[in-house]
Amino acid sequence: MATDGRLARMLHVLVHMGLLGGKETSERIALMLSTNPVVVRRTLGALRDHGIVASEGGRGGGWKLIKSLDQVTVLDVQRALTKGPILHVPISRDHPSCPVEWASNRVLEQAHAAAESYLVRSYAATTLAQIAKDATVKASVTT
Amino acid sequence: MATDGRLARMLHVLVHMGLLGGKETSERIALMLSTNPVVVRRTLGALRDHGIVASEGGRGGGWKLIKSLDQVTVLDVQRALTKGPILHVPISRDHPSCPVEWASNRVLEQAHAAAESYLVRSYAATTLAQIAKDATVKASVTT
DNA sequence: AATAGTGTAACCGAAACGGTTACGCTGAGC
DNA sequence: GCTCAGCGTAACCGTTTCGGTTACACTATT
User: A78-94 pLDDT, tens per residue?
Assistant: First the structure.
Protein backbone atom coordinates (compact mmCIF):
# COMPACT_ATOMS: atom_id res chain seq x y z
CA MET A 1 0.00 0.00 0.00
CA ALA A 2 1.02 3.61 -0.23
CA THR A 3 3.30 4.90 2.51
CA ASP A 4 0.89 6.41 4.92
CA GLY A 5 2.57 9.04 6.98
CA ARG A 6 6.06 7.78 6.59
CA LEU A 7 7.08 9.33 3.31
CA ALA A 8 6.15 12.84 4.40
CA ARG A 9 7.77 12.35 7.77
CA MET A 10 10.97 11.04 6.26
CA LEU A 11 11.20 13.89 3.77
CA HIS A 12 10.70 16.28 6.63
CA VAL A 13 13.39 14.81 8.81
CA LEU A 14 15.90 14.19 6.02
CA VAL A 15 15.73 17.79 4.94
CA HIS A 16 16.25 18.93 8.50
CA MET A 17 19.22 16.61 8.81
CA GLY A 18 20.65 17.90 5.58
CA LEU A 19 20.26 21.51 6.65
CA LEU A 20 21.71 20.92 10.09
CA GLY A 21 24.49 18.81 8.64
CA GLY A 22 25.37 16.86 11.75
CA LYS A 23 24.33 13.75 13.57
CA GLU A 24 20.96 13.32 15.23
CA THR A 25 19.76 10.79 17.77
CA SER A 26 16.49 8.88 17.42
CA GLU A 27 15.37 10.72 20.51
CA ARG A 28 15.78 14.16 18.96
CA ILE A 29 14.25 13.06 15.68
CA ALA A 30 11.29 11.61 17.53
CA LEU A 31 10.74 15.02 19.09
CA MET A 32 10.85 16.64 15.63
CA LEU A 33 8.19 14.23 14.40
CA SER A 34 6.08 14.13 17.55
CA THR A 35 6.51 10.41 17.82
CA ASN A 36 8.81 8.09 19.71
CA PRO A 37 12.32 6.74 19.10
CA VAL A 38 11.32 3.20 18.21
CA VAL A 39 9.19 4.36 15.32
CA VAL A 40 12.06 6.53 14.15
CA ARG A 41 14.51 3.66 14.23
CA ARG A 42 12.08 1.40 12.40
CA THR A 43 11.57 3.89 9.63
CA LEU A 44 15.11 5.25 9.33
CA GLY A 45 16.30 1.64 9.35
CA ALA A 46 14.69 1.19 5.96
CA LEU A 47 16.51 4.24 4.64
CA ARG A 48 19.79 2.94 6.01
CA ASP A 49 19.28 -0.31 4.12
CA HIS A 50 19.04 1.76 0.96
CA GLY A 51 22.16 3.82 1.54
CA ILE A 52 20.47 7.12 2.34
CA VAL A 53 21.43 7.44 5.99
CA ALA A 54 23.88 5.68 8.27
CA SER A 55 23.51 4.78 11.92
CA GLU A 56 26.11 4.44 14.62
CA GLY A 57 25.53 2.55 17.82
CA GLY A 58 27.01 3.16 21.23
CA ARG A 59 27.53 6.37 23.10
CA GLY A 60 27.66 9.40 20.84
CA GLY A 61 25.89 7.43 18.14
CA GLY A 62 22.96 8.54 16.02
CA TRP A 63 21.92 9.03 12.44
CA LYS A 64 23.39 11.05 9.62
CA LEU A 65 22.70 11.62 5.95
CA ILE A 66 25.33 9.98 3.79
CA LYS A 67 24.25 11.69 0.59
CA SER A 68 23.86 15.35 -0.11
CA LEU A 69 20.35 16.74 -0.42
CA ASP A 70 20.59 17.05 -4.17
CA GLN A 71 21.51 13.39 -4.53
CA VAL A 72 18.33 12.09 -2.94
CA THR A 73 14.99 12.18 -4.72
CA VAL A 74 11.55 11.71 -3.25
CA LEU A 75 11.38 8.49 -5.24
CA ASP A 76 14.52 7.18 -3.52
CA VAL A 77 12.83 7.66 -0.17
CA GLN A 78 9.59 6.12 -1.38
CA ARG A 79 11.40 3.06 -2.73
CA ALA A 80 13.31 2.66 0.49
CA LEU A 81 10.09 2.70 2.49
CA THR A 82 8.00 0.30 0.48
CA LYS A 83 8.51 -2.12 -2.34
CA GLY A 84 6.13 -2.27 -5.20
CA PRO A 85 3.67 0.23 -6.57
CA ILE A 86 2.86 3.47 -4.79
CA LEU A 87 -0.82 3.26 -5.63
CA HIS A 88 -2.96 0.39 -4.58
CA VAL A 89 -5.00 -0.75 -7.58
CA PRO A 90 -8.50 -1.73 -6.47
CA ILE A 91 -9.22 -4.82 -8.52
CA SER A 92 -11.54 -7.74 -7.90
CA ARG A 93 -10.46 -11.32 -8.28
CA ASP A 94 -13.69 -13.14 -7.68
CA HIS A 95 -14.14 -14.69 -11.12
CA PRO A 96 -10.87 -14.68 -13.05
CA SER A 97 -12.50 -16.22 -16.06
CA CYS A 98 -15.38 -13.75 -16.29
CA PRO A 99 -14.76 -11.39 -19.21
CA VAL A 100 -16.80 -8.63 -17.57
CA GLU A 101 -14.65 -8.72 -14.49
CA TRP A 102 -11.61 -8.80 -16.71
CA ALA A 103 -12.72 -5.73 -18.64
CA SER A 104 -13.62 -3.84 -15.46
CA ASN A 105 -10.25 -4.60 -13.95
CA ARG A 106 -8.44 -3.62 -17.10
CA VAL A 107 -9.95 -0.14 -17.08
CA LEU A 108 -8.89 0.37 -13.49
CA GLU A 109 -5.46 -1.10 -14.04
CA GLN A 110 -4.72 1.10 -16.99
CA ALA A 111 -5.89 4.28 -15.31
CA HIS A 112 -3.93 3.51 -12.18
CA ALA A 113 -0.84 2.48 -14.09
CA ALA A 114 -0.80 5.84 -15.84
CA ALA A 115 -1.37 7.71 -12.58
CA GLU A 116 1.34 5.66 -10.93
CA SER A 117 3.77 6.40 -13.68
CA TYR A 118 3.00 10.09 -13.37
CA LEU A 119 3.63 9.96 -9.64
CA VAL A 120 6.90 8.11 -10.13
CA ARG A 121 8.08 10.70 -12.60
CA SER A 122 7.15 13.51 -10.21
CA TYR A 123 8.89 11.83 -7.30
CA ALA A 124 11.98 11.11 -9.36
CA ALA A 125 12.16 14.72 -10.51
CA THR A 126 12.12 16.19 -7.03
CA THR A 127 15.22 16.21 -4.84
CA LEU A 128 15.45 16.95 -1.17
CA ALA A 129 17.51 20.00 -2.11
CA GLN A 130 14.48 21.44 -3.89
CA ILE A 131 12.33 20.89 -0.85
CA ALA A 132 14.96 22.54 1.31
CA LYS A 133 15.04 25.51 -1.01
CA ASP A 134 11.25 25.85 -0.99
CA ALA A 135 11.28 25.69 2.77
CA THR A 136 13.89 28.39 3.18
CA VAL A 137 12.05 30.63 0.73
CA LYS A 138 8.81 30.06 2.62
CA ALA A 139 10.54 30.75 5.90
CA SER A 140 12.08 34.01 4.69
CA VAL A 141 8.76 35.19 3.28
CA THR A 142 6.95 34.38 6.49
CA THR A 143 9.63 36.05 8.56
CA MET B 1 -9.66 6.57 1.07
CA ALA B 2 -9.72 4.83 -2.29
CA THR B 3 -12.57 2.41 -2.85
CA ASP B 4 -11.03 -0.88 -2.01
CA GLY B 5 -12.79 -3.68 -3.78
CA ARG B 6 -16.09 -1.97 -4.22
CA LEU B 7 -15.50 0.01 -7.37
CA ALA B 8 -14.34 -3.00 -9.34
CA ARG B 9 -17.15 -5.12 -7.98
CA MET B 10 -19.78 -2.54 -8.78
CA LEU B 11 -18.51 -2.06 -12.33
CA HIS B 12 -18.61 -5.80 -12.73
CA VAL B 13 -22.14 -6.19 -11.51
CA LEU B 14 -23.54 -3.10 -13.22
CA VAL B 15 -22.26 -4.26 -16.58
CA HIS B 16 -23.81 -7.66 -16.03
CA MET B 17 -27.10 -6.04 -15.09
CA GLY B 18 -26.94 -3.85 -18.17
CA LEU B 19 -26.27 -6.79 -20.44
CA LEU B 20 -28.97 -8.95 -18.90
CA GLY B 21 -31.37 -6.05 -18.89
CA GLY B 22 -33.72 -7.26 -16.21
CA LYS B 23 -34.06 -7.21 -12.47
CA GLU B 24 -31.70 -8.99 -10.12
CA THR B 25 -32.03 -9.89 -6.47
CA SER B 26 -29.33 -9.23 -3.91
CA GLU B 27 -29.06 -12.97 -3.56
CA ARG B 28 -28.19 -13.53 -7.20
CA ILE B 29 -25.83 -10.58 -7.27
CA ALA B 30 -24.10 -11.89 -4.16
CA LEU B 31 -23.48 -15.13 -6.00
CA MET B 32 -22.01 -13.21 -8.94
CA LEU B 33 -19.62 -11.43 -6.60
CA SER B 34 -18.89 -14.34 -4.30
CA THR B 35 -20.11 -12.41 -1.32
CA ASN B 36 -23.36 -12.18 0.59
CA PRO B 37 -26.59 -10.24 0.10
CA VAL B 38 -26.09 -7.76 2.92
CA VAL B 39 -22.84 -6.50 1.45
CA VAL B 40 -24.57 -6.17 -1.90
CA ARG B 41 -27.41 -4.14 -0.44
CA ARG B 42 -25.01 -1.91 1.41
CA THR B 43 -23.00 -1.17 -1.67
CA LEU B 44 -25.83 -0.96 -4.19
CA GLY B 45 -27.65 1.28 -1.72
CA ALA B 46 -25.02 3.93 -2.33
CA LEU B 47 -25.58 3.65 -6.07
CA ARG B 48 -29.32 3.94 -5.58
CA ASP B 49 -28.81 7.15 -3.63
CA HIS B 50 -27.03 8.51 -6.68
CA GLY B 51 -29.65 7.55 -9.20
CA ILE B 52 -27.76 4.74 -10.89
CA VAL B 53 -29.91 1.81 -9.80
CA ALA B 54 -33.33 1.45 -8.21
CA SER B 55 -34.52 -1.09 -5.67
CA GLU B 56 -37.93 -2.55 -5.06
CA GLY B 57 -38.96 -4.24 -1.86
CA GLY B 58 -41.39 -7.05 -1.32
CA ARG B 59 -41.91 -10.21 -3.24
CA GLY B 60 -40.60 -10.00 -6.78
CA GLY B 61 -38.42 -7.08 -5.80
CA GLY B 62 -34.78 -6.56 -6.59
CA TRP B 63 -32.41 -4.15 -8.27
CA LYS B 64 -32.32 -2.72 -11.75
CA LEU B 65 -30.22 -0.24 -13.66
CA ILE B 66 -32.14 2.95 -14.30
CA LYS B 67 -29.66 4.34 -16.78
CA SER B 68 -28.30 2.79 -19.91
CA LEU B 69 -24.73 1.57 -19.89
CA ASP B 70 -23.53 4.47 -21.98
CA GLN B 71 -24.96 6.97 -19.54
CA VAL B 72 -22.91 5.79 -16.58
CA THR B 73 -19.20 6.48 -16.27
CA VAL B 74 -16.70 4.87 -13.96
CA LEU B 75 -16.46 8.24 -12.24
CA ASP B 76 -20.19 8.21 -11.51
CA VAL B 77 -19.80 4.91 -9.72
CA GLN B 78 -16.70 6.08 -7.86
CA ARG B 79 -18.46 9.24 -6.69
CA ALA B 80 -21.46 7.26 -5.54
CA LEU B 81 -19.26 4.97 -3.49
CA THR B 82 -17.09 7.49 -1.73
CA LYS B 83 -17.02 11.21 -1.27
CA GLY B 84 -13.83 13.15 -1.63
CA PRO B 85 -10.61 12.37 -3.40
CA ILE B 86 -9.86 8.97 -4.89
CA LEU B 87 -6.25 9.06 -3.80
CA HIS B 88 -5.26 9.41 -0.21
CA VAL B 89 -2.53 12.05 0.03
CA PRO B 90 0.04 11.00 2.60
CA ILE B 91 1.04 14.24 4.27
CA SER B 92 2.11 14.89 7.84
CA ARG B 93 0.54 17.40 10.18
CA ASP B 94 2.88 17.26 13.09
CA HIS B 95 4.23 20.80 12.92
CA PRO B 96 1.97 23.02 10.82
CA SER B 97 4.27 25.98 11.26
CA CYS B 98 7.44 24.21 10.20
CA PRO B 99 8.44 25.38 6.71
CA VAL B 100 10.25 22.13 6.00
CA GLU B 101 7.14 20.11 6.73
CA TRP B 102 5.17 22.55 4.65
CA ALA B 103 7.52 22.19 1.68
CA SER B 104 7.55 18.39 1.96
CA ASN B 105 3.79 18.27 2.06
CA ARG B 106 3.50 20.62 -0.86
CA VAL B 107 5.55 18.36 -3.11
CA LEU B 108 3.38 15.39 -2.23
CA GLU B 109 0.15 17.33 -2.54
CA GLN B 110 1.00 18.63 -5.97
CA ALA B 111 2.10 15.28 -7.31
CA HIS B 112 -0.99 13.57 -5.95
CA ALA B 113 -3.31 16.30 -7.12
CA ALA B 114 -2.04 15.83 -10.66
CA ALA B 115 -2.34 12.06 -10.43
CA GLU B 116 -5.83 12.40 -8.99
CA SER B 117 -6.88 14.70 -11.74
CA TYR B 118 -5.56 12.23 -14.29
CA LEU B 119 -7.51 9.42 -12.67
CA VAL B 120 -10.67 11.50 -12.58
CA ARG B 121 -10.34 12.28 -16.27
CA SER B 122 -9.80 8.60 -17.07
CA TYR B 123 -12.76 7.54 -15.00
CA ALA B 124 -14.98 10.22 -16.49
CA ALA B 125 -13.99 9.18 -20.00
CA THR B 126 -14.94 5.54 -19.54
CA THR B 127 -18.55 4.41 -19.66
CA LEU B 128 -19.94 1.07 -18.64
CA ALA B 129 -20.87 0.54 -22.27
CA GLN B 130 -17.18 0.57 -23.18
CA ILE B 131 -16.44 -2.01 -20.53
CA ALA B 132 -19.30 -4.14 -21.81
CA LYS B 133 -17.93 -3.91 -25.32
CA ASP B 134 -14.41 -4.87 -24.21
CA ALA B 135 -15.86 -7.80 -22.32
CA THR B 136 -17.82 -9.12 -25.27
CA VAL B 137 -14.80 -8.76 -27.54
CA LYS B 138 -12.68 -10.61 -25.04
CA ALA B 139 -15.31 -13.30 -24.66
CA SER B 140 -15.59 -13.84 -28.41
CA VAL B 141 -11.82 -14.02 -28.82
CA THR B 142 -11.51 -16.53 -26.01
CA THR B 143 -14.39 -18.56 -27.37
C1' DA C 1 -51.52 -15.35 5.91
C1' DA C 2 -47.26 -16.90 3.79
C1' DT C 3 -43.34 -15.74 1.37
C1' DA C 4 -39.67 -13.43 -1.10
C1' DG C 5 -37.63 -9.50 -1.13
C1' DT C 6 -35.16 -4.91 0.68
C1' DG C 7 -33.31 -1.91 4.82
C1' DT C 8 -30.42 -1.57 8.68
C1' DA C 9 -28.13 -2.23 12.97
C1' DA C 10 -24.76 -4.77 15.45
C1' DC C 11 -20.90 -7.51 15.92
C1' DC C 12 -16.76 -10.14 14.41
C1' DG C 13 -12.29 -10.81 11.92
C1' DA C 14 -8.38 -9.47 9.12
C1' DA C 15 -4.95 -6.22 7.71
C1' DA C 16 -2.09 -2.07 8.21
C1' DC C 17 -0.01 1.60 10.69
C1' DG C 18 1.55 3.89 14.74
C1' DG C 19 2.56 3.83 19.67
C1' DT C 20 4.64 1.58 23.58
C1' DT C 21 7.31 -1.47 26.49
C1' DA C 22 11.00 -4.44 27.10
C1' DC C 23 15.37 -6.22 26.44
C1' DG C 24 19.78 -7.14 24.04
C1' DC C 25 23.96 -5.26 21.90
C1' DT C 26 27.72 -1.70 21.15
C1' DG C 27 30.98 1.73 21.95
C1' DA C 28 32.76 6.08 24.19
C1' DG C 29 34.31 7.99 28.47
C1' DC C 30 35.55 7.83 33.18
C1' DG D 1 36.28 -2.53 33.31
C1' DC D 2 32.14 -0.29 34.42
C1' DT D 3 28.64 2.83 33.26
C1' DC D 4 25.62 4.73 30.28
C1' DA D 5 24.00 6.70 25.96
C1' DG D 6 22.76 5.13 21.89
C1' DC D 7 20.88 1.72 18.21
C1' DG D 8 18.27 -3.05 16.95
C1' DT D 9 14.40 -5.74 17.38
C1' DA D 10 10.62 -8.38 19.06
C1' DA D 11 6.16 -8.31 21.07
C1' DC D 12 1.88 -6.40 22.11
C1' DC D 13 -1.93 -3.01 21.93
C1' DG D 14 -5.23 0.51 19.91
C1' DT D 15 -7.34 2.42 15.89
C1' DT D 16 -9.26 2.38 11.41
C1' DT D 17 -11.32 0.34 7.41
C1' DC D 18 -13.41 -3.15 4.80
C1' DG D 19 -15.84 -7.39 4.25
C1' DG D 20 -18.62 -11.13 6.29
C1' DT D 21 -22.36 -12.60 9.20
C1' DT D 22 -26.45 -12.71 12.01
C1' DA D 23 -30.64 -10.82 13.32
C1' DC D 24 -34.74 -8.42 12.80
C1' DA D 25 -38.06 -4.99 10.96
C1' DC D 26 -40.61 -3.71 6.98
C1' DT D 27 -43.07 -4.39 2.36
C1' DA D 28 -45.42 -6.18 -1.47
C1' DT D 29 -47.00 -10.06 -4.09
C1' DT D 30 -49.36 -14.40 -4.20
Answer: 999 998 899 988 888 88
